[in-house]
Every structure is written in structure tokens, then in C-alpha cells.
Specification:
Largest interface: A-B, 73 and 78 residues
Shape of chain B: globular
Shape of chain A: globular
Structural class of chain A: alpha+beta
Largest sheet of chain B: 7 strands, mixed
Oligomer: heterodimer
Structural class of chain B: alpha+beta
Number of helices of chain B: 10
Strand content of chain A: 35-45%
Helix content of chain B: 10-25%
Distance between the termini of chain A: 55 Å
């Protein structure tokens, strides 16, 4: 079900490309984006916020041919008037003159460009009327508050709906675009017991409004996740097996993607430099990045460079099978772009057979991590140390909630120590994972 | 109203009466507070990597936002074409949150912002070719520091944000906000090890700022030195121990442990771990924490906040007692408190919310050397990469990127990156010594809240915490 992208975008792209050529650019690319949306929040059963959104922007990249490669600069504007387009093109060319010649800079090779984007089912009719969205938000919050009497407060439930379009054109003649839509329902509530408070929440998002779980189901999960955190305590410092619940596990894939990114690789700023073909995970682990997953939240027919996206493996049978490369990083490394200008698309780890309860039985005694905090990940060295909260597990069952602890390991050791993969994969975000059981990590606490 | 007149009002054909009529469209009836925010912002950046200037970038964004508030409810609409018909339509959309009502009459009285920084666009304060040369100086100085320096990435950025805020109660303020920043990241390498270092600085100033302690060579050597130190880093310890924080940027402790928890929105809603605790002890005697937007030229400073409120120095914790929250107009109004000038928004496309500006702990009297000498076995952390807080449970983290073990009162080996975790309402009660060396950070901080990024500053004297959990892998 495809609708036409914003009809004003393609003419703006062509106008700015023409301006860039007039200003002296040897090559140019323009990306235009527009979006319209509505976000409503209900807190404690009353409408708290109605936000109407409307965005539009143009980004121009120019290349000037030099003695030893191209010189480049990028300019963006929200003003689409002819005067602003002329100014943007002149600025870009002036800035590019100051850059150094770079043999890796320039538009992609024509053969890699997406010429006729396939329909990836990313756009659906969507309601942009506050009243029905407010009703859904109210139902979501009410379901969360009803879960447990200790849930006594709320940060509110938010429902948002947006439609957007992107059009990309370049001086090689490519002019492509696609529309998208998205609906998100989420809720955060607060529970209290003995003077201590906890918050948690849940949300779901999809291109198709009908694919989003019901507001009451989302609210119920938000309530359950909040109430179960009450009564948390610190663990003493120890080494123990650690199970990362699905969403926490997905953050590990995010670090993997960062360490396999082309920019980090050509800057030699990743602990995974030179790991292509080497075993990083045990053989039962496969990590995929799929740009063309139908209705995938990270799906796109072409990347930020206009290059056709792919469905591919980053980890195949435990072995590093691919990098995430844009056109520039690919040239720096002597490799072809993988269609990852802008990063990964739908990054996921292939699920195993056991649900989370099965993983916890297998772990028997250890830590279930449900939430992670902070930026304590150094992808240059691979050192990983983050704040965590979750549950201590005894005999395969949740024993008590824990908080104010850290989990730490070297990422290489952590990836190698995956002993089991859960079955609980859901495509709820561009980066997603089933729960993962890790043999052992250092837990710091009291 | 010079840049504002030139960039925002004149092109849209708006004057004071015209603005008043548009604000009035959003006000009246059940609407208690309405405002119109016009913004024109310009950003320029140059980046150097692998010894070459890879590219420059430039961006212009302009637009308006209209807000209408009734009780706890807010209606908001924004757009990118600044003209009276578009603003009028958005005002009607925003005020629909309170149903239909009569339109108000608004008369605006212009007020000059506090003179904390020059109004001129810093992008024009230096030739572009000199900005590129500055980056090349950074690269040379970092590589000259030590042959093991392998990668240098440096970014020089400048921005100019011009805003006009018109409030339904008659306030009208325009502010022109310059901001410059140099950030440097270095990787040092031996055949078997690598280490990361970073440094940077900036403020609300023209490019002339980059001299003295913000001299590009000085900052480049600081980043290179940290990368070399980290080459020799051993695994950080794991467990709860005494922690000494160095002066300046480690003030991120305050930002995470108490600052966010004292923002008015979370306290009005009762979702903060600090809610209802005004007048109670939340820190050791001798600990005084201030949020100060009035500092000349600092990254977090504001001549007027994004609701037009004049800047203030707000004492949050006075000698260990919680005495104040950070308020914007809406949350302050609902709590019966005045705005403290902390209503900030990332852009016209975002709603203002209570945010920090420059948050620091006042200096004490102890010699920093004495503080280190008092620790038998602990950690000395001088640089951090960032932090995060759960304002409801009060648990917060911040990640050390340069830290050393303290043994028998002396600095020992450097340790690898590790997260420190604590409990906000409890953490500052464990401050046992406060140094006499208060320093503000050099101007590198960006705070994220509710999806909105704003520039902030932090500051700290050397402090000793008797116990904090350190999340390493070692013993």
C-alpha cells in the first residue's frame, strides 16, 4: 500500500541540484525530507499534551574535483525559497574549496545506486486526529495503573502518528523516493513501596497502525514491568552468569554494529579491526542486517548515499562475515559499500529454541539484566562497564529485584561467552535481539 | 533587537503589535499561559581526520512554535514558514487543547536580555581558512606529543541561535546566542595495546576564545596525554570503595546525581526521588550546589531562557539541605513558585521544559593533595565520558575515561574505562572532603532529556566520597 511521497520534494531536489551545478559543483547529491505528525499524551486520565509536528528540510552534498581526489562539503536548510537554495549551493561550494583533496570522496559508482525502489510496505493510511489518539493513550495508561495497587503515579501514556517522505537525487541522474508512516504507543508509570519509587514502561511501534499491539496490552506490560522492580537491593560484588533480557541484549548488538562500522574500521578505532573471517561468537550465533525486511522499522530501499540496500549477515555461524560500510568507508577500506550509509537497517540476532524462562532454568543461578544505564562502552579497547538493574535468579526462578550494580567484561570475551540464545525475538525496533545467556561477567555492587 | 529584527521580524513583516496580535490568538478563555517562539539558527563545522580536513558543513534552520497552556494541559504546534497566517493557524491549533473561548488582548513590552555574551554571529568572527588552520595545528600538536599517537579526529563548530519570545503576560525578549566548540579525540597505539583520549572546550563567544587554557595546542596535548596514559591502563577494580573526583568536568556527578532529580517537572508530578524533600538533608554539611545561568560567556549561560525569563543563580542544596528546584513557567506556576529561568527548548520544534544551565558545587577549604593522601585504597577519577540517571529510583551512573587507583594515599596505576554507580539522594551525604580548587568544565557538555539536546556546563572542586560503587572487572 504505497502513497505518493510529498509532491513538493522532487522539484526542490532538482532545483537545488541545478543550483549546485551553477555554483560550480562537479558532483552533487540532495536529500529532501518532510513529515507531518501528531503526538498526544494522557497523564492520570487527563489530556496533558497535544503536539502538532510539521518538518521539512533539504541537505546538499557537493564534490569539487581536485588534483588528488574530490573536495566535499554539506549544507542543510529548512528554507526552500529560491534565494535560500542559491545561498545553500554557494555556501556548499565555498566550504568544499577549504577541504583537502580526498581520493575516497565522491558520489557512489552508478552501478550500486537504487534506480527503482521496491515497495517495502513502509507506508499506510494513518489517522492524524487528536481525539482517537487521546482515547488510545487513556486506555493504555488506565491498563498500566490497574496492574498493581502500588502503581500510584504516572509519567503518562503517549500515542504518536506520523507520515513522512524522503526523496534523494544526485548529479548522476538518480531521483528516487519513498513514503513512510509510523505509529507508536507507549506508557511509563511509577510504583512506590516503603518510600522507594521505581519507574518503567513499555512501548510498541510499527509502520502499519494495525500492527501495533493494543494500547491495553502495552499498558499492562508497562505496569507489570514497573511493579516487579519494587523492593530492589544491591548485590555484593561477584562473578556470575548473566542473562540479558531481549531489549538489554539488543544494546549488545548495537555495540557490535558500532565496532563493525566502516568509519571505526578505517580510523582503526575499533577492537574488531581485522576480525573479518574470524570466530567472535560461538557457532550457533548468526547476526543479520536486513535493509529490505517488509515493513521493518529500519527498512529502506536505498541508504543515505542512494545505494541499494541488502539483506546480509554480519555474523555467520559465529564468524565475522561482514562490515557496515557506506560508500566513503568502503573506498577507504578497498571494499564495496554494503548499503549502510546511515548505519544498520534491521539488525537482529537469529532466535534460538528456548523462551526466557528456559534460559533462566539453564542459567539456574545468576543475574537477569532488564535495564542498562550510561555510556560505559569503549569500542576502541572493547571495555564494557554499564549500570544495570534486573533480578537475581535462583533455581531458575526470579528471586528478588536488584539495582545499583554494574556489569562488566571485555566485549570480545562477552560475545564469545554466549551460551544460549532465546526464542523471544520481536521486530519492535531497528535493532532487536532475543534474550541472551552469557557464561560469566563481573558484577560490582556493595 | 538587532539580529532578531534582521533575521526574524523584518523578513516576516512582524512588529511588536503584530506579535502581540498573534500571541493573543493562542491566549484567552481557559488558557493561562501562551507564548510564541521565533528562531533562526545557523551552524557551521569543520572536521579533520587522518591529517586532512575531510569536509565542512553548514546548516540553517528557522521556524516558530506556539504553545497554549491550560492547567496541566499543553497544546503545541510549530512550522518552518514564519509568517502571520501560518502562525495564526498554529495558534488556533495549539489553543484547541482548552476548547473554544474568547481571544485575549495582549500588549507586549520589550525587555533587553542580560549582557552575558556578544550578539554577533561567531561564524563570521574568523576567516574559514583560519578555522581550517586551527584544526591542522591540533593535528600537528597531538602527533608531536608522542609517536604512539595514531589517530586524531578534531571538530571545530560554531553556531548562532537568534530567538524572539513573546508571552501572553506581556513579556517580549530577543536573544542572540553565540556558541563555539573544539572537540578532539585521539587514539594511541602500540603493537599490542591502544588507548583513547579526548579533550575540548568552548563557550558563548567568538573564535578568539581559543587561546590560553583553550589554546588548540594545549587541548591537543591534553587529549594525546590521556590516550598515552590509557595505553598503560590496567583493569579497573570492582566494588564499593572511596572515590576522589578531580575538579571541573567530573561535576557531571552533580548533573546526574541531583540536578535532573531537582527539575520542576519531575517534582510537580511527584515522579522524582527528590519530590517532597525541600528542607531535608540530601548532602553532607559543607556541600552547596548551585545552577547558575549568569556566568559570562559559559556554554550553559543564557541571557534569557527560552521563555524569556532573566537568568539566575539558583541554590539547589545549601550546606547539605535541599532548598530549591529548577523551574520553568509552567511547572513553577503549577507548584506556586516563580520560574528560576530554567525553561529551555532545543528548538522551535520542541516544548520548553526545566533544564540545567551551569551546575556546580561551591569550593571548600581542603588542599586537594590532602584529599588524595586521606585515601588508603580507592579510585581517583579525573575525566568522564558521560552519565545517565533514573530520576525516579535516583540511581545514576557516570563513566570514567581517565582514572587511577589510589593506594596508601598515593596515586598508583591508571585503570581502564569503568562506570561508577550510585543513589542520588544518598550519594552526596557521603562527601567527606571538599577541595579549595573549584573549576568549571572547559565547555563541552550537552545534556539530553525527553529527546531534546541543550548545551550545559558543570563544575566541581576536588571531592572525596567515602563510598561509591566502581564497575570494573579487576580485584
Amino acid at each position: 500500500m504505497t502513497t505518493t511521497p510529498d509532491p513538493t520534494l522532487a522539484p526542490a531536489v532538482e532545483a537545488l541540484l541545478a543550483r549546485a551545478a551553477q555554483a560550480g559543483a562537479d558532483q552533487a547529491q540532495v536529500t529532501a525530507r518532510s513529515g507531518r505528525g501528531l503526538a498526544v499524551t494522557v497523564r492520570l486520565a487527563k489530556a496533558e499534551r497535544i503536539e502538532h509536528r510539521q518538518d521539512r528540510s533539504l541537505a546538499l552534498t557537493v564534490y569539487l574535483r581536485g588534483m588528488a581526489g574530490m573536495r566535499t562539503a554539506t549544507c542543510a536548510t529548512t528554507d526552500l525559497s529560491p534565494a535560500a537554495l542559491r545561498e545553500t549551493a554557494c555556501q556548499a561550494v565555498a566550504l568544499a574549496r577549504l577541504a583537502d583533496d580526498d581520493p575516497a570522496a565522491g558520489l557512489p559508482d552508478a552501478a550500486t545506486l537504487e534506480g527503482a525502489p521496491p515497495d517495502l510496505a513502509l507506508s499506510y493510511p494513518i489517522v492524524l486526529d487528536p481525539q482517537p489518539l487521546l482515547a488510545e493513550a487513556a486506555a493504555c495508561e488506565a491498563a498500566a495503573l490497574a496492574v498493581d495497587p502500588r502503581i500510584c503515579n504516572s509519567e503518562g501514556a503517549t500515542v504518536s502518528a506520523t507520515t513522512a517522505a524522503v526523496v534523494l537525487g544526485n548529479s548522476l541522474g538518480q531521483l528516487v523516493g519513498y513514503p513512510t508512516s509510523r505509529k507508536t504507543v507507549g506508557c511509563v508509570v511509577v510504583a512506590e513501596q516503603g518510600g522507594a519509587k521505581e519507574r518503567d514502561g513499555w512501548s510498541a511501534s510499527a509502520h502499519a497502525p494495525a500492527a501495533v499491539e493494543s494500547p491495553t496490552a502495552i499498558g499492562r506490560i508497562a505496569g507489570e514491568r514497573t511493579a516487579r522492580r519494587l523492593g530492589g537491593r544491591q548485590l555484593t560484588t561477584r562473578k556470575a552468569p548473566v542473562c540479558f533480557e531481549h531489549d538489554a541484549a539488543a544494546t549488545l548488538l548495537g555495540h557490535l554494529a558500532g565496532a563493525l562500522s566502516g568509519t571505526a574500521l578505517y580510523r582503526r578505532s575499533t577492537f574488531l579491526s581485522g576480525w573479518l573471517g574470524a570466530p567472535l561468537f560461538p557457532p550457533f550465533v548468526t547476526v543479520r542486517d536486513e535493509g529490505r525486511l517488509p515493513s521493518g522499522l529500519g527498512s529502506a530501499p536505498f541508504d543515505d548515499d542512494g545505494v541499494a540496500t541488502q539483506d546480509r549477515s554480519l555474523i555467520d555461524g559465529g564468524v565475522v562475515a561482514g562490515y557496515l560500510l557506506d560508500t566513503y568507508a568502503g573506498r577507504k577500506l578497498g571494499l564495496a559499500s554494503t548499503g549502510n550509509g546511515g548505519g544498520f537497517h534491521n539488525l537482529y540476532l537469529r532466535p534460538g529454541d528456548n523462551d526466557l524462562a528456559g534460559l533462566l532454568r539453564q542459567m539456574h543461578t545468576g543475574l537477569l539484566v532488564t535495564d542498562l544505564m550510561g555510556q560505559g562502552v569503549n569500542l576502541i579497547t572493547g571495555d564494557y562497564s554499564r549500570g544495570a538493574a534486573g533480578f537475581w535468579v535462583e533455581g531458575g526462578e526470579l528471586a528478588f529485584p536488584v539495582h545499583e550494580i554494574t556489569v562488566a567484561a571485555h566485549l570480545r570475551d562477552l560475545f564469545g561467552a554466549v551460551v544460549a540464545v532465546g526464542s523471544d525475538l520481536r521486530f519492535a525496533a531497528p535493532c532487536t535481539s532475543p534474550s541472551l545467556l552469557i557464561e560469566e561477567m563481573t558484577i560490582a555492587g556493595a | 533587537m538587532d539580529p532578531a529584527e534582521h533575521l526574524l521580524l523584518a523578513p516576516a513583516g512582524l512588529d511588536v503589535e503584530g506579535l502581540a496580535a498573534l500571541v493573543a490568538e493562542a491566549a484567552g478563555g481557559a488558557i493561562e499561559l501562551a507564548d510564541l517562539y521565533l528562531e533562526h539558527s545557523r551552524q557551521q563545522a569543520f572536521q579533520l581526520e587522518e591529517g586532512r580536513v575531510r569536509s565542512g558543513s553548514h546548516a540553517i534552520a528557522a521556524g516558530f512554535g506556539v504553545r497554549a497552556v491550560a492547567g496541566e494541559a499543553t497544546g503545541f504546534a510549530y512550522g518552518e514558514e514564519i509568517n502571520a497566517p501560518a502562525i495564526r493557524a498554529a495558534a488556533r491549533t495549539a489553543r484547541a487543547i482548552a476548547g473554544r473561548g474568547t481571544t485575549a488582548t495582549v500588549s507586549l513590552v520589550p525587555r533587553a536580555p542580560a549582557p552575558l555574551y556578544p550578539a554577533d554571529d561567531p561564524i563570521d568572527s574568523a576567516l574559514d581558512v583560519d578555522k581550517v588552520r586551527l584544526l591542522e595545528r591540533v593535528d600537528r600538536a597531538a602527533r608531536a606529543f608522542d609517536p604512539r599517537v595514531d589517530q586524531v579526529v578534531a571538530t571545530l563548530a560554531a553556531s548562532h541561535q537568534v530567538v524572539v519570545v513573546a508571552q501572553s503576560d506581556g513579556e517580549l525578549v530577543a536573544d542572540s546566542r553565540p556558541l563555539v566548540r573544539l572537540s578532539i579525540s585521539v587514539v594511541a597505539r602500540t603493537p599490542t595495546r591502544c588507548g583513547r583520549g579526548s579533550a575540548g572546550g568552548g563557550g558563548r563567544s567568538p573564535f578568539a576564545l581559543f587561546t590560553g587554557e583553550l589554546d588548540p595546542e594545549t587541548l591537543a596535548r591534553a587529549a594525546a596525554r590521556q590516550a598515552i596514559v590509557n595505553l598503560a591502563a590496567r583493569p579497573a577494580p570492582a566494588g564499593t570503595m572511596a572515590v576522589v573526583l578531580g575538579p571541573g568536568w567530573p561535576g557531571i556527578l552533580l548533573h546526574e546525581a541531583v540536578g535532573h532529580g531537582l527539575e520542576g517537572d519531575f517534582n510537580r508530578k511527584g515522579s522524582s526521588a527528590f519530590a517532597g524533600r525541600l528542607g531535608q538533608r540530601v548532602a553532607a554539611p559543607g556541600v552547596t550546589v548551585v545552577d547558575d545561568a549568569t556566568l559570562m560567556g559559559r556554554r550553559g549561560s543564557l541571557s534569557a531562557d527560552d521563555e524569556g525569563t532573566p537568568p539566575a543563580a539558583t541554590v539547589l542544596i545549601d550546606d547539605g539541605i535541599l532548598v530549591g528546584y529548577l523551574q520553568d513557567r509552567h511547572n513553577g506556576h503549577l507548584m506556586g513558585q516563580p520560574s528560576t529561568g530554567n525553561g529551555r527548548r532545543q528548538s522551535f520544534a520542541h516544548l520548553p521544559i526545566p533544564r540545567m544551565t551551569n551546575t556546580f558545587m561551591r569550593g571548600g577549604e581542603v588542599d586537594p593533595q590532602e584529599i588524595l593522601a586521606s585515601v588508603d585504597d580507592g579510585l581517583y577519577a579525573v575525566q568522564f565520558s558521560g552519565g545517565q540517571v533514573d530520576i525516579t529510583s535516583g540511581k545514576f551512573v557516570f563513566a570514567a575515561s581517565e582514572a587511577y587507583r589510589i593506594r596508601a594515599g598515593k596515586l598508583a596505576e591508571p585503570v581502564r574505562d569503568a562506570t561508577l554507580i550510585g543513589d542520588g539522594p544518598d550519594c552526596l551525604t557521603k562527601v567527606t572532603l571538599v577541595g579549595n580548587d573549584l573549576a568549571l568544565d572547559l565547555g563541552i557538555g550537552t545534556c539530553s532529556k525527553g529527546g531534546q539536546m541543550v548545551p550545559v556546563g558543570v563544575g566541581l572542586p576536588t571531592v572525596k566520597l567515602s563510598a561509591l560503587t566502581v564497575g570494573g572487572t579487576g580485584g
